[in-house]
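Ops channel
N.P.: pipeline sanity check, posting one input/output pair.
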């Protein structure tokens, strides 16, 4: 697969030959249908959830629901609210939600001795502060707004986010969102000298499936593969569909041995369980290439290129196998 071109700042350029990376809303009816799928049966809902909505930053549009007790914000994959931002400390700040009466919550914001500070409505937080709806929290390049959210508003935000970042067929990230996240996570790993691995995956002989069974059957296979990918990923991992039958897995805080185990598990889950088509079961396999970031990788494209070379080697060796990039052996 050719590596997407980058501009002078290292950002991914648009590929004119690639499919539109976003899912256009052809009508408000599309949005209404998506919202109804997320709504409770009665179509209504009382404000029952507190959440942070990202208004600026790499997680633009994402909704983080707050849980009773401590909600830690930071760069680490182990915290409750992860912000992939090099200006965010691994453990940056804390939102503590405490009961303050029947159906009432008290929410306090505290900075956890972060490097670059936490700001509430533009003012640095130097002691615990009580929040009210509409307050804006600035952490690194992110701005998060506190909202009291009913099911309809939550469904609206989640639907908008899905429309702009997800592949509608597989439910995984689309090309644009996945490559943007790869770049962000690569820069964080390089700056803080933390491991990151990627897995390139390609379904074997997929054109034959489309030609023999029809494109509807091909869509069933793609959707089924997307589900198997989700079943094998951790919460901090990222997976996206970046081409017709090409997929990319981004695994932060993961060395090559761990990435190899995941790739082999994914390969086996596909190979061992046939897809059920209207015409009957069909066996599908995939080839995978694995690469871990090394110092010679000057940018995310170099890391992706080595994984793609390993994928090509897997196909050349007979398909239905995992190959690790030579420089990671």
């Amino acid at each position: 697969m050719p590596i997407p071109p980058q501009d002078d700042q290292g950002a991914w350029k648009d590929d004119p030959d690639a499919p539109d990376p976003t899912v256009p809303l052809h009508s408000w009816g599309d949005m209404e249908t998506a919202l109804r799928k997320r709504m409770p049966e009665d179509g209504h809902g009382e404000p029952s959830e507190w959440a942070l909505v990202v208004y600026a930053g790499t997680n633009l549009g994402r909704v983080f629901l707050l849980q009773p007790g401590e909600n830690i914000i930071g760069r680490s994959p182990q915290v409750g609210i992860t912000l992939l931002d090099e200006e965010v400390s691994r453990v940056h700040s804390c939102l503590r939600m405490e009961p303050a009466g029947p159906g009432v919550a008290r929410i306090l914001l505290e900075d956890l001795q972060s490097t670059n500070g936490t700001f509430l409505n533009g003012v640095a937080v130097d002691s615990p502060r009580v929040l009210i709806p509409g307050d804006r929290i600035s952490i690194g390049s992110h701005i998060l707004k506190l909202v009291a959210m009913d099911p309809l508003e939550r469904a609206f935000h989640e639907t908008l986010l899905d429309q702009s970042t997800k592949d509608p067929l597989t439910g995984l990230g689309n090309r644009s969102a996945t490559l943007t996240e790869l770049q962000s996570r690569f820069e964080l790993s390089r700056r803080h000298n933390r491991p990151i691995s990627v897995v390139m995956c390609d379904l074997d002989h997929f054109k034959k499936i489309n030609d023999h069974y029809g494109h509807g059957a091909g869509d069933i296979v793609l959707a089924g593969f997307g589900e198997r990918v989700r079943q094998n990923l951790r919460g901090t991992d990222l997976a996206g569909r970046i081409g017709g039958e090409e997929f990319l897995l981004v695994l932060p805080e993961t060395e090559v041995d761990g990435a190899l185990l995941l790739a082999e598990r994914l390969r086996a889950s596909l190979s061992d369980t046939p897809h059920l088509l209207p015409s009957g079961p069909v066996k599908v396999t995939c080839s995978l290439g694995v690469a871990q970031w090394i110092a010679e990788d000057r940018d995310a494209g170099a890391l992706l290129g080595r994984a793609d070379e390993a994928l090509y080697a897997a196909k050349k060796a007979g398909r239905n196998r995992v190959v690790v990039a030579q420089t990671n052996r």
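N.P.: looks fine end to end. The chain is about 30% helix and 25% strand.
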